[in-house]
Write a structure and sequence with these properties.
This protein is α+β, with helices and mostly antiparallel strands and 113 residues long. The protein has one domain. The protein is built from five helices and four strands; from the N terminus they run H-H-E-H-E-H-H-E-E. A hairpin with a 2-residue loop joins strand 3 and strand 4 (106-112). It starts with 15 loop residues before the first helix and ends with a strand.
């Protein structure tokens, strides 16, 4: 019989959802919503979430760089109009793309996977 494992008095490690929630409350530029909307229009019902990460997340603005985004999809075939992209993404993820959206006299830029 295996001996019982003693219960630790230490705090349990944070779950992934806790870590994401902490970062989700940070204020970011409204410009990010423009990029997110463009991606949601592109991926339609295949998109489950869009996640912002990278240096623009830390600065909270797009003024000095290219936004880094992940688009989480529920089905690669539904996400891509070209079938070879869904096959490549399943074999060798992630596919990485570049996005430019004109907004308020500026060009918002992002790379997304």
């Amino acid at each position: 019989m295996t001996p019982a494992v003693p219960i630790s008095s230490e705090e349990p490690p944070k779950t992934l959802l806790d870590v994401v929630a902490e970062h989700s409350i940070r204020a970011v530029s409204p410009d990010f919503q423009v990029l997110v909307q463009a991606l949601l229009e592109e991926y339609k019902t295949a998109a489950d979430a869009v996640i912002l990460y990278g240096s623009c997340l830390r600065s909270g603005a797009l003024d000095e760089g290219i936004g880094d985004l992940y688009v989480l999809v529920n089905d690669y075939r539904a996400a891509y109009a070209k079938r070879y992209l869904s096959t490549l993404n399943a074999w060798l993820a992630p596919n990485v793309f570049y996005l430019e959206v004109p907004h308020a006299g500026r060009l918002l830029r992002a790379k997304y996977a």
